[in-house]
Amino acid sequence: MDSGIPADTAQLLTDLDRFIEEQIAPLQAADDNERFFDHRREWARTDFEAGGLPRAEWHELLTEMRRRADRAGFLRRDLPAELGGSEAGNLEMAIVREHLAHRGLGLHNDLQDESSIVGNFPSAHLVWKFGTDEQRSEFVEALITGERGLGFGLTEPDHGSDATWMETVGVRSGGDWILDGAKRWNTGMHVATHDLVFARTSGKPGDARGITAFLVPVDAPGFTIGLFRWTLNMPTDHADVTLRGVRVPDSAILGEEGRGLEIAQNFVHENRIRQAASSLGAAQYCIDESVAYARERVTFGQPLAARQAIQWPLVELHTDAAMLRELIRATARDLDTRSHMEVSDRVSMCNYRANRLVCDAADWAMQVHGGMGYSRHLPFEHIYRHHRRYRITEGAEEIQMRKVAGHLFGFTR
């Protein structure tokens, strides 16, 4: 359903579709790469005997996809012009991410590890915005090309959404810092050269100030990558990390000392609206596929689509998708023109509702398709398993609803 897509964005979608058909679809079809997307996908992607990590062949295929997208001028679309980007706004990125997810499972847009022909580079954005000249030079381009990997170490074994109560600490030692603590769900550690570690360096538990972000080499003495935790959707890139007397120089601080949470939260609105758009696109894919199947499938002498038990749940989902599309695009448009805090509550609305919608749509698609829907020969179980995590990560839906409630009842200033 078109909702006032700007002409230049509409042309971009056409160009992306042509690029997919000419370069990405043939790559997916070559060398049995379909094994990463058909019923074999979880097994093909995961090296179960190596701790559940992504297989090297899967990682290389995603890397080649990004190389081709970069050469075609699509990969860096949202990055600053100085980095070869087009400085795409939130509205364009929301439309693009919905469009790519609506195409279904494929090499063009594999959300399992946030890999797409139109890249999303939160780590590069953070270093570009908060880093020193030396940090920018060392990390930004390398993060885009994959020569460097930056993990994200915020969550701890006993602290998730309550990040201001984290127990990892940093203590000054001469011109250096000594870091001690533990992280859980430390994302991206299978390819990380560095980890963005958040540690309390001043203040007391519960204070927003006093937490500092450090760029820590993963080969630093005392830095240990432990168990990669297996999840509902495999492979995993989420590790347990311990820091015991890890020494880093003062130059390892990203941004200002004591203001690390501002870094963690800086790109949150963009990430959440883009993730909501992706969930919406995947939900609409599930709805469309279910409608098409119900029209073709004949039971007891009639198309499945003739039965209200099939019609009405899909009508509800389709209606919710249409309304959510309007909210997501209006919110993305306002993110481009207004203070983020003015629309923070609407970003949360979009995010938690879209994540819930895609789970409902995937679940109903499995039901409509019957036994085949439950099988891995159709993509719905994969979509459900992938998107279910976003009701917890990127800000659990309870946290999102709490934010909306704060605005609604006047508790948030």
Describe the overall structure.
It is a single chain. With 413 residues, the protein is α+β, with helices and mostly antiparallel strands. The chain has helices at 7-29, 41-45, 56-71, 90-102, 122-130, 133-145, 260-266, 268-296, 308-337, 344-368, 370-374, 380-387, 397-408; strands at 46-47, 53-54, 109-110, 115-116, 150-153, 169-173, 176-187, 194-200, 211-217, 223-228, 238-249, 253-254, 298-299, 302-303. It has three domains: 7-120, Butyryl-Coa Dehydrogenase, subunit A, domain 1, CATH 1.10.540; 150-259, Butyryl-CoA Dehydrogenase, subunit A, domain 2, CATH 2.40.110.10; 267-408, Butyryl-CoA Dehydrogenase, subunit A, domain 3, CATH 1.20.140. The strands form five sheets. It has a four-stranded mixed β-sheet with strand order 5-8-9-12. Strand 1 and strand 2 form a beta hairpin. Helix 4 packs parallel to helix 8, helix 8 (268-296) runs antiparallel to helix 9 (308-337) and helix 8 runs parallel beside helix 10. The radius of gyration is 22 Å and the shape is globular. The two termini are 36 Å apart. The mean pLDDT is 94.
Rg, Å, rounded: 22 Å
- The string of secondary-structure elements, in order, is HHEEHHEEHHEEEEEEEEHHEEHHHHH
* Number of DSSP E strands: 14
- Any idea what the shape is? globular
Mean pLDDT metric: 94
CATH fold descriptor of the largest domain: Butyryl-CoA Dehydrogenase, subunit A, domain 3
- Going by helix content, strand content and strand pairing, the class is alpha+beta
Instruction: Please outline the major beta sheet.
Output: 4 strands, mixed
Fraction of residues in helix? 40-55%
CATH class call of the largest domain:
Mainly Alpha
The percent range for strand residues is 15-25%
CATH superfamily of the largest domain: Butyryl-CoA Dehydrogenase, subunit A, domain 3
